[in-house]
Amino acid sequence: MTVNPNLLLLSNSTQHGRGYLEHALKTVTGFLPANARLAFVPYALADHDTYTARVRGALEPAGISVRGVHEGADPRAELATADAVFIGGGNSFRLLSALYRTGLLDAVRDAARQGLPYMGASAGTNMAAPTLRTSNDMPIVQPPSFDALGLVPFQINPHYQDPDPDSTHKGETREERLREFLEENDVPVLGLREGSWLRVEGALATLSGERPARLFTRDAPPQELPAGSDVSALLATRPGFDTPARATA
């Protein structure tokens, strides 16, 4: 059980027409400790050095020292000396596979549960949920399990997109996919539209950013939640995975 969660979970790190983290920079720098040593986890993308340099370029002008966990011999040792951790976006399956392989899954979970500030964006926000089952990503690799960090007891869908009534595309919409998830799992899903984020401080969870979020729960219509909404009740969720809503033939 999370003892003292201190989380900033961004839907996205790059907003249309803005630089990396620019849309949330004030929130990010306010969340991170002053002059923090930030451990950055770049495993969601293949080029770890370039990715780390991008984060460094965005945050070091604000006095945040950024070091990629891949830059030392032991990623867990890099985490142990940090004042905060940031897991960036990319492919969630590649990211989770690397967290298992490096031993960081347990290390990050334990540190965050002890109060280390945890920031995620996109795939990094997916990692904060119990599983990857509501990721938008293609499984380009096969992790040992879909089980993620479980820093919150509900699912999150970053980059949530509303159905386009004018689209001629006949594939499933994001809403339809999340409804299918709820047919098999009794777990709320918080759809974070781009430009929005979730802040968790202990027992308090608050939505922030430029756009409302959308909450999906079993046997109920989706609920629109404006920025500023208190969603602390979600922290009391008791997730029920693999609990079909009805028997199948």
TrEMBL record:
Record-listed E.C. numbers: 3.4.13.21
GO MF assignments: dipeptidase activity; serine-type peptidase activity
Entry-linked SUPFAM superfamilies: Class I glutamine amidotransferase-like
Cellular localization per UniProt: Cytoplasm
BP GO terms, sorted: proteolysis
Gene3D superfamilies: 3.40.50.880
Record key words, sorted: Cytoplasm, Dipeptidase, Hydrolase, Protease, Serine protease
One cellular component term from this protein's GO annotations in UniProt: cytoplasm
Location (main, coarse): cytoplasm
Reaction(s) the record says it catalyses: Dipeptidase E catalyzes the hydrolysis of dipeptides Asp-|-Xaa. It does not act on peptides with N-terminal Glu, Asn or Gln, nor does it cleave isoaspartyl peptides
Active site positions, chain numbering: 122 (charge relay system), 137 (charge relay system), 159 (charge relay system)
Family membership noted in the UniProt record: Belongs to the peptidase S51 family.
Function (record text): Hydrolyzes dipeptides containing N-terminal aspartate residues. May play a role in allowing the cell to use peptide aspartate to spare carbon otherwise required for the synthesis of the aspartate family of amino acids.
HAMAP family in the record: Peptidase_E (MF_00510)
Name the UniProt record assigns to this protein: Peptidase E
Classification lineage: Bacteria, Bacillati, Actinomycetota, Actinomycetes, Kitasatosporales
Gene: pepE
